[in-house]
């Protein structure tokens, strides 16, 4: 992927040995180095630093971007699905995602497979994913999605079978 090659410090074709780390007889894969940020941990830290350096946070309900006061250097739009109303975009639909967070400290490398299958090591847990369901407003955990995610991730990395499930998360994104 020539686009990604320009963005990442290290991006190359995976070696035969690296391909053998995953089950499934993979013929091609990519190896790359990137940065992973866990928002629930990073955002409180970033907000604290921003405020310590003279930044100001104003939270208010807006009916339109025209309601934004003009005396700001920057505006961060974190409306998510609220952008449908704020921006008047009636074509915006949610994409439902579901993941499992497991305790698997031996997993140090991220893996991406077919069908939205991924294993992402984090600070305290490893994320197993996922699903991508367009135009679904369902924010409830689904045992069938969970079973499918586990099955695909276990097929990709069998050692995950012994991982303790810490929690399951569902979210909607635009």
TrEMBL record:
<dbReference type="GO" id="GO:0019478">
    <property type="term" value="P:D-amino acid catabolic process"/>
</dbReference>
<keyword id="KW-0285">Flavoprotein</keyword>
<protein>
    <submittedName>
        <fullName>Similar to Drosophila melanogaster CG12338</fullName>
    </submittedName>
</protein>
<dbReference type="GO" id="GO:0003884">
    <property type="term" value="F:D-amino-acid oxidase activity"/>
</dbReference>
<dbReference type="InterPro" id="IPR006076">
    <property type="entry name" value="FAD-dep_OxRdtase"/>
</dbReference>
<dbReference type="Pfam" id="PF01266">
    <property type="entry name" value="DAO"/>
</dbReference>
<dbReference type="InterPro" id="IPR023209">
    <property type="entry name" value="DAO"/>
</dbReference>
<feature type="domain" description="FAD dependent oxidoreductase">
    <location>
        <begin position="15"/>
        <end position="174"/>
    </location>
</feature>
<dbReference type="GO" id="GO:0005737">
    <property type="term" value="C:cytoplasm"/>
</dbReference>
<keyword id="KW-0560">Oxidoreductase</keyword>
<keyword id="KW-0274">FAD</keyword>
<dbReference type="GO" id="GO:0071949">
    <property type="term" value="F:FAD binding"/>
</dbReference>
<comment type="similarity">
    <text>Belongs to the DAMOX/DASOX family.</text>
</comment>
